[in-house]
């Protein structure tokens, strides 16, 4: 089961603090979907980084969407720049592991990791366990991140069992909605 994407937020370059608005919108919907704790925190932080990147490095308008499957949810951030940013190399081991020969790593590498700029995509990569990327068209780019989820289906079927021994009736799918403004 894959749902059509649900738009959680739209913003422009004039919108005040879009990262905070994106965090609040995503936190609300994931809580309504029954997720909690670390699952919400990881998703909110990773998506906040993608929102900040789009807002800082690409023209708007922008859109944040959520798509659900049976096993995961996918958050998408769309902007109006069809170019994929330069992706830094991600270390295969812990980035601050000391170099056994005493030349780098350790505290120096940790301080580099915690530098003010340039670590957003590393954070996204870590929180998504590498399940993120970009899709481009001629005029837009979509950054996406996938997270495992045990979410209820948005489309459900109700099976009615008649008492008279007749076959089960399966009515049309009914749509379940989630209040994004709550």
Question: Brief overview, please?
Answer:
This protein has 182 residues and is α+β, with helices and mostly antiparallel strands. It has four helices and seven strands. It has helices spanning 18-32, 37-57, 106-113, 120-128; strands spanning 6-11, 62-68, 72-79, 132-136, 141-148, 155-156, 174-175.
What keywords describe this structure?
alpha+beta; 182 residues; 5-stranded antiparallel beta sheet; 29% helix; disordered C terminus; 21% strand; two-stranded antiparallel ribbon; globular
Structural summary, described in words:
The chain is globular, with a radius of gyration of 21 Å. The strands form two sheets. A five-stranded antiparallel beta sheet has the order 1-2-3-5-4. A hairpin with a 4-residue loop joins β4 (132-136) and β5 (141-148). It is built from four helices and seven strands, in the order βααββααββββ. By secondary structure, it is of the alpha+beta class.
The spatial strand order of the largest sheet comes to 1-2-3-5-4
Order of helices and strands: EHHEEHHEEEE
How many E strands?
Answer: 7
Q: Which blocks of ≥5 consecutive residues have pLDDT under 50? A: 151-162, 167-182
Radius of gyration: 21 Å
Number of helices: 4
Mean pLDDT: 76
Structural class of the helices, strands and pairings?
A: alpha+beta
Shape: globular
N-end to C-end Cα span: 26 Å
| Strand portion | 15-25%
Sheet with most strands: 5 strands, antiparallel
Proportion of residues in helical segments: 25-40%
Give the helices and strands, then pairings.
Elements: E1 6-11, H1 18-32, H2 37-57, E2 62-68, E3 72-79, H3 106-113, H4 120-128, E4 132-136, E5 141-148, E6 155-156, E7 174-175
């Amino acid at each position: 089961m894959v749902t059509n994407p649900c738009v959680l937020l739209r913003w422009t370059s004039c919108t005040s603090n879009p990262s905070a608005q994106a965090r609040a919108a995503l936190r609300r919907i994931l809580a309504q979907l029954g997720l909690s704790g670390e699952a919400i925190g990881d998703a909110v932080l990773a998506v906040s980084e993608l929102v900040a990147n789009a807002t800082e490095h690409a023209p708007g308008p922008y859109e944040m969407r959520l798509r659900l499957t049976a096993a995961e949810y996918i958050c998408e951030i769309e902007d109006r720049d069809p170019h994929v940013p330069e992706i830094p190399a991600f270390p295969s081991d812990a980035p601050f592991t000391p170099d056994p020969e005493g030349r780098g790593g350790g505290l120096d590498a940790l301080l580099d990791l915690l530098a003010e700029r340039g670590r957003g995509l590393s954070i996204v990569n870590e929180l998504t366990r590498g399940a993120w990327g970009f899709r481009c068209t001629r005029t837009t780019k979509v950054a996406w991140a996938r997270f495992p989820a045990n979410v209820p289906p948005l489309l459900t079927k109700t099976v009615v069992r008649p008492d008279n021994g007749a076959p089960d009736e399966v009515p049309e799918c009914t749509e379940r909605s989630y209040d994004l403004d709550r």
